[in-house]
Structure formats: C-alpha cells, structure tokens
C-alpha cells in the first residue's frame, strides 16, 4: 500500500500486513508529521462481484422469462456486462434471444465444458448459460451429493461471475433442487406478480418458502416485486396492484402493462427493444432497467 505524507509529500511503500490492526495514525519519518491511516477495508477493497438477481415465483406464466430476458438485455444495452442463466428445463431464454446453444449451464457445472464453451454470446455484453432438458442431469448431480448439494450452482458460477456486472437467473415454476440452489446463490430476488389472476396467494406461499431459506442464508432478500400483465380496463388488476402497494410499499416496481408485443417478440428471437422499441412493453422494461441499475439517466 502506498502512503503519502500530506505535509511534506514524502511517499512510502508500506507492507499492509505489518500495520497493527488497531493502528489509526501514521508518523512521517521525514518531517515527523502525524496523519490518519486510510481505513484498511478501503485500501484492500476486493472487487464486490456482480449483482446476483433471481427472477422467481413458484407460479408459471407470470412473466419470469419475459422479465429475465428483457431485464438482462436492457442492462446490456445500458452498458453493463450481463450473464443470463436459464435454470428452466423448457429452455425458453435461448429461444427468446434467437440463439441455438449446443450446451449450457449443465455442461459447465458438471465440468464437461469450459465456461467459454458453455456460455453463448447472445448480444453485445450479454451472455447466456442456457437451460433446457439437460438440466435433469444437473438435478441428479445435486441429488447424489451427500452434503453441500445446495451450493452446486454457486460453486459453478463462481468460476465466471467476476467477468460480469449482473448475473440474472431465470427460474422454473415450482420448487425443486435447482430452485434451492438459486436461492443459495442470488442475493436479490425479483418476483413478478401477474395482476391478471389470483396470484397474490402464489406470492404469499413463495415468501414463506423464501423465509425458510433465509434462516440458513441471511444475505438474500426480496428486493423487487414486479406487477405484470397490468390491464387498466380490468378493475381486478387495479385492485391487486393497490393491495400489493399497501402490503409491500417500496418494493413494488412500476408495473409492466399487458402488451401483445411482449408475447410476439420471442417467436422472432428478439428482445422487446429490437422487436417493438416504441411499444408500452419496451417502455415498461426500460423503466425496470433504470430501477434495478439505479441509473435514472439510461435511455432518456
Ligand atoms: N406484459 C405482458 N403482456 C402480454 N403478454 C405477456 C406479458 N408478459 C409475458 N407475456 C406472455 O405471457 C406468457 C407467459 O410469460 P413468461 O414470461 O413465459 O412467464 P413464466 O416464465 O413466468 O412462465 C408468454 O407467452 C409471454 O410471451
Ligand atoms: Mg419461464
């Protein structure tokens, strides 16, 4: 660590390990000036690693895949390096991005392929670790472990995560060994809640399961609740939205409106920004990207 005396500007190269943990002040041997030492944790700042976000709810058809793909792609458009991980056996993320990966998450975690071979570059700054049927093999691998099975995903992703600013994980509906693995990896959970149906019940149940994991893993939190399929013509939609805001206040993001363009885009292998950049869907997902990145100036 380099220290500079603020009085005489004399520079010292100091071995940090030799500074006693309690020392707060240094003395310049040259001019005898005493000055405060920088805080050690600042000096030895280890890169914090990527933001790790799981897009999760046990219910299907609420917009998890749509959100994962368009959040990841939006962040990449905004200049961030993003890894999208598909942990669903349906493997829809690659379809939605119009790429045909030969391999993906399973092959990387099982050590059959190097990360460079398993990840596919889907767009500029956006990489995908595909899901799909092969995940059955990963589930078996997790099941076979006597202990530590829940950390399989975390250990596998540790090899690549430092290259990214965000790791976004799309998940399958239901609750299986891979869902548990996701909860032992991510630090933030984004939960899409469809305003169309009776999905509040689904949210309450999911939050119970999340709480059971939080007992073992303190550094995971529900960070965003994303209302989806908002249709202002449907009174029920507004009702559920009001209820969500009352119960979860600041966690509730600006809703994603019902937008037919969002349902058409995957069949074209395009993100919403490519398929219909002027649509409500694109506007709403850009707003989500601003919220999650904390960068309010993006795309303005
Ligand atoms: N805001 C929206 N408006 C209209 N259709 C949507 C919207 N969000 C998602 N969809 C469509 O609804 C279906 C379910 O969404 P999807 O993202 O696959 O949900 P999940 O991954 O939770 O099962 C898909 O066909 C998708 O294209
Ligand atoms: Mg899905």
Keywords:
13 helices, Rossmann fold, 2 domains, alpha/beta, two-stranded antiparallel ribbon, single chain, 300 residues, binds magnesium ion
Helices and strands, with pairings:
Elements: E1 2-4, E2 11-13, E3 25-27, E4 34-36, H1 40-43, E5 51-55, H2 64-77, E6 82-86, H3 92-97, H4 105-109, H5 115-118, E7 120-123, E8 126-129, H6 135-144, H7 152-157, E9 166-170, H8 177-183, E10 188-194, H9 200-214, E11 221-228, H10 235-248, H11 260-264, H12 272-275, H13 280-293
Adenosine-5'-diphosphate (ADP) binds at residues 60-66, 228-229, 256, 258-260, 262-263, 266.
Structural write-up:
By secondary structure, the chain is α/β, with parallel strands linked by helices. The protein has two domains: 2-43, no CATH class; 51-293, P-loop containing nucleotide triphosphate hydrolases (Rossmann fold), CATH 3.40.50.300. The chain is built from 13 helices and eleven strands. The protein has helices at 40-43, 64-77, 92-97, 105-109, 115-118, 135-144, 152-157, 177-183, 200-214, 235-248, 260-264, 272-275, 280-293, and strands at 2-4, 11-13, 25-27, 34-36, 51-55, 82-86, 120-123, 126-129, 166-170, 188-194, 221-228. Strand 3 (25-27) and strand 4 (34-36) form a beta hairpin. Helix 2 crosses helix 13 (280-293). The radius of gyration is 23 Å and the shape is globular. The mean pLDDT is 93. Adenosine-5'-diphosphate binds at residues 60-66, 228-229, 256, 258-260, 262-263, 266.
């Amino acid at each position: 660590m380099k220290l500079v005396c603020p009085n005489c500007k004399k520079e010292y190269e100091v071995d940090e390990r030799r500074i006693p943990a309690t020392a707060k002040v240094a003395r310049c041997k040259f001019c005898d000036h005493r000055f405060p030492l920088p805080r050690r944790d600042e000096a030895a700042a280890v890169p914090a690693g990527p933001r790790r976000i799981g897009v999760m709810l046990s219910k299907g058809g609420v917009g998890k895949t749509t959100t994962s793909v368009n959040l990841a792609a939006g962040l990449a458009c905004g200049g961030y390096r993003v890894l999208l991980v598909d942990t669903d056996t349906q493997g829809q993320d690659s379809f939605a991005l119009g790429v045909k990966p030969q391999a993906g998450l399973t092959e990387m975690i099982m050590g059959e392929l190097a990360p460079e071979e398993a990840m596919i570059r889907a767009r500029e700054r956006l990489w995908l670790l595909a899901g799909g049927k092969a995940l059955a093999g990963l589930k078996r691998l997790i099941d076979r472990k006597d202990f530590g099975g829940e950390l399989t995903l975390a250990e596998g992703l540790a090899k690549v995560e430092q290259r990214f600013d965000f790791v976004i994980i799309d998940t399958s509906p239901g609750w299986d060994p891979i869902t548990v693995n996701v909860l032992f990896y991510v630090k933030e959970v984004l939960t899409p809640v469809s305003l169309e149906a009776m999905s509040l019940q689904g949210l309450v149940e999911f939050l119970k399961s999340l709480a059971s994991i939080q007992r073992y893993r303190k550094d995971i939190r529900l960070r965003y609740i994303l209302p989806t399929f908002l249709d202002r013509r449907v009174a029920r939609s507004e009702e559920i939205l009001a209820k969500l805001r009352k119960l979860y206040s600041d966690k509730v993001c600006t809703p994603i409106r019902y937008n037919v363009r969002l349902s058409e885009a995957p069949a074209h292998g395009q993100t919403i920004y490519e398929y219909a950049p002027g649509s409500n869907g694109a506007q709403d997902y850009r707003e989500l990207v601003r919220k999650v990145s904390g960068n309010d100036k993006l795309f303005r």
